[in-house]
Design goal:
Rossmann fold; six-stranded mixed beta sheet; 20 helices; about 45% helix; binds adenosine-5'-triphosphate; binds magnesium ion
Length: about 450
């Protein structure tokens, strides 16, 4: 077994002891830590460079004698090293591991969740008094999702956050483009500066220039005072140009000049004003096509489309749909304690998984809220959600498959005494898959075991 040294932008480093699978690696990347392998015969040299945070992560799944010896030598050689232990709930641990883990500062239980991992790593590094990047992760935290598609998005957010280049966010309506833009800002060195969101499609055409770049007193009828534009307001921070495809051509020319020269002129003014602004743009239209039809400038597209972030449609996010639905319902219940609905019926869960969600996360959010109001019992039905099950692709075969999967899972769990590893072996899938299937079918291992 090898041990793993993970680094993130040479700043945050976790020594991972165990065998991370592809998903573990994805999760690490999603919270901003990438992974490097070192041979198990090497005594790990911890590169304590200045402003580097180091955490050792002991993965107790399948920890063997060699790996255990390595953990011990690591701990002995680095007494102050914060330990993070990944533990499988309900499993009996080898006493040697247990003794070692008594020194562990933090535990994170399986199945690994990005938010739990992030919290655990953060508390480890804060505890050790190592450098804390000190970013406010609130928008990144609000961006829910554990699907591979969303893990990829999170990894990109961390990757792009620290780079000062423009980002183009693409995605259908309601996929979280604005939330992602906020997260990028908060993860960037500009986090303490302003974040200004501008909807390019919502400004009156004749006022766009003055809205973006400001105007001097008397610049036009009604300009009775000098006004600072969005670009100047975003100085030292980030400007988010939403629906950039809606920007008229003359404003595109001026935007290009600001991006090229780093300064602007207010409408009716002659002075150049220096601005230091990171630009994030978003669109749900095909800008290449807009370029082809002469509605969008190619040179501006080149300037804006440097780093690209793709927000996946909700229908590509698998179990995230249910995860988010539960979260939105929980939030609603907190705000409205009299709400009767406390969960989703199995039919509602199946219906949500099979719906195309053209309005994506925003549509899901609105449907859940409405369902929470109209539901007449504790469990929300497909009708409460306004989902027409008859019009869905879930034919007889699909529901038969889902039913068979549910039965097989439950039966095998029972046979193996609800031991996830044994159940995974028997069904020839990974433990992660078992956890996912349990979530999908609304099976709580804790409840089943008791
Ligand atoms: N991954 C997510 N987790 C939780 N909430 C989300 C997520 N993505 C989006 N939302 C919520 O969904 C709503 C729509 O998100 P947002 O406004 O960022 O989407 P958008 O892509 O900018 O939409 P539009 O194209 O219509 O401008 C917001 O209320 C946002 O908080
Ligand atoms: Mg938006």
């Amino acid at each position: 077994m090898g041990s793993i040294l993970a680094t993130a932008n040479n700043k945050r480093c976790v020594i991972w002891l165990g065998q991370p699978d592809a998903r573990d690696r994805q999760l690490m990347a999603a919270v901003g830590w990438s992974v490097r392998v070192i041979g198990h015969d090497q005594v790990p040299q911890i590169g304590m460079r200045s402003n580097e945070t180091v955490v050792a992560c002991v993965d107790t799944r399948g920890l063997d004698a060699t790996a255990l010896a390595q953990v011990e030598s690591l701990v002995m050689a680095n007494p102050g090293l914060p330990l993070l232990a990944i533990v499988e709930p309900g499993t009996r641990m080898n006493p040697d591991v247990q003794r070692l883990l008594r020194a562990a500062t933090t535990e994170v239980s399986l199945p690994l969740q990005t938010s739990a991992l992030q919290r655990a790593l953060d508390s480890c590094s804060t505890h050790a008094g190592f450098d804390d990047p000190g970013h406010d992760h609130s928008a990144a935290d609000r961006l829910l999702g554990q699907s591979p598609a969303m893990l990829e998005v999170r990894a990109r957010l961390h990757q792009f956050g620290s780079i000062a280049l423009p980002v183009m966010i693409l995605g259908e309506t309601g996929t979280g483009k604005e939330l992602a833009a906020r997260a990028l800002h908060e993860l960037s060195p500009r986090a303490n500066g302003p974040f200004i969101a501008v909807n390019c499609g919502a400004m009156p055409t004749n006022l766009i220039q003055s809205e973006l770049f400001g105007h001097e007193r008397g610049a036009f009828t009604g300009a009775s005072t000098r006004r600072i534009g969005h670009f100047e307001s975003a100085h030292g921070g980030t400007i988010f140009l939403d629906e950039i495809g809606d920007l008229p051509l003359d404003a595109q020319v001026n935007l290009l000049r600001v991006l090229q020269e780093g300064n602007l002129q207010r409408v009716g003014g002659s002075q150049s004003v220096q601005v230091d602004v990171r630009v994030i743009a978003a669109t749900h239209v095909d800008l290449q096509q807009a370029v082809a039809s002469g509605e969008f400038r190619n040179d501006l597209l080149f300037r804006l489309d440097v780093l690209r972030l793709l927000m996946p449609p909700l229908r590509k996010r698998g179990d995230d749909i249910e995860l988010m639905a539960n979260h939105f319902l929980g939030e609603f219940r907190q705000a409205h304690p009299a709400t009767i609905a406390r969960g989703f019926s199995p039919a509602a869960r199946r219906a949500m998984a099979a719906t195309a969600w053209p309005g994506n996360v925003r549509e899901l959010l609105n449907r859940v809220r409405r369902a929470a109001v109209v539901a007449a019992s504790g469990l929300i039905t497909p009708e409460d959600l306004g989902i027409d099950i008859d019009n869905q692709a879930t034919g007889g075969l699909d529901s038969a498959r889902i039913h068979a999967e549910h039965e097989t899972l439950l039966e095998t769990l029972r046979e193996t005494g609800f031991n996830v590893s044994a159940c995974a072996r028997k069904l020839n899938v990974s433990r992660v898959t078992i956890y996912r299937l349990c979530r999908k079918h609304g099976l709580s291992l804790e409840q089943l075991r008791s």
